[in-house]
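Open question from group meeting: does this chain pack into something compact, or does most of it stay loose? Before anyone orders reagents, we agreed to write out a predicted structure and look at it together. Recording both the input and the output here so the notebook holds the full record.
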Amino acid sequence: MRYIKDVPNQEFKISIYQWNNKYIVKIEAGMYEQTYKIDEYDVSSVEDIENCMDVLFMAKVSATFGMMQMDFSDTLNRNEVIF
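Structure tokens returned:
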């Protein structure tokens, strides 16, 4: 996997990689991450991918991170891993 660049963001660490004819967008928040794969042939440039990191998408990413945290916390409590 080849690192391409980081996308500036105040809330998340966003990195773009290239691997197997795909761009991989990795968005990290603490101990959670979301990964999106895009075929190289579906975009004309890395800038197209950066433009997709708009306010609406990032709000949805943030909501997904919130759900991930709640789901994981629920399973830890339900299975008595944490008290």
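Observations to bring back to the group:
The first helix runs from residue 46 to 51.
The beta strands are 2-7, 13-19, 22-29, 32-39.
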